[in-house]
Specification:
Length: 92
């Protein structure tokens, strides 16, 4: 849903590189660009490397940069909302 690095413009990322399908059995995502399986964090790294953008040190918070197709909220935001909904429904 957005670039993992500020110096990489989202519009410059190849369309196929923006698509991945969750594989339930592997618990990873199949990247449309090369059809291999990755974590969302590894996909962020691969997109940067493919576009010659330094990845630096440390891990990417992958779910912050990816969303369900057609959604405007990142997977991290959706998970936080679900957690808040579930917690509030349990509280007496």
């Amino acid at each position: 849903m957005r670039s993992p690095k500020p110096e990489l413009d989202y519009k410059d990322i190849e369309e196929k590189a923006k698509l991945a399908t969750f594989q339930k059995t592997a618990q990873k995502f199949k990247w449309e660009l090369d059809e291999l399986s990755y974590s969302l964090s590894a996909l962020c790294k691969m997109i940067c490397e493919k576009n010659n953008v330094s990845v630096g040190s440390g891990a990417f918070p992958g779910p912050d940069f990816w969303a369900v197709e057609g959604e405007n909220k990142s997977l991290s935001e959706q998970a936080k909302e679900l957690l808040e909904t579930n917690v509030s429904s349990v509280v007496p």
